[in-house]
């Protein structure tokens, strides 16, 4: 990986980093929704606002940013 990074320009390498970050943030938000649907988190119930609404908004925003990244040429 390090040798491949030597031939990439800054814009391409930051696009790869952003792709991975947005993908990870989307996965985290979807995992929170999954925990909400399972019904419990460490013995406590998760509220609908913090367990469903905010993570879904975050996942949609992350997916929109992911789709909006510059395409590799």
Layout of helices and strands:
Elements: H1 2-6, H2 10-38, H3 48-67
Helix pairs in contact: 2-3
Overall description:
By secondary structure, the protein is an all-alpha fold. The chain is built from 3 helices and no strands. α2 runs antiparallel to α3 (48-67). It starts with a helix and ends in a 6-residue tail after the last helix. The relative contact order is 0.16.
Would you kindly provide a brief summary of this structure?
By secondary structure, the protein is mainly alpha-helical. It has helices at 2-6, 10-38, 48-67.
Net shape: elongated
Number of helices: 3
Parts with pLDDT < 50 across at least 5 consecutive residues: none
Main beta-sheet annotation: none
Q: What characteristics describe this protein?
A:
73 residues; mainly alpha
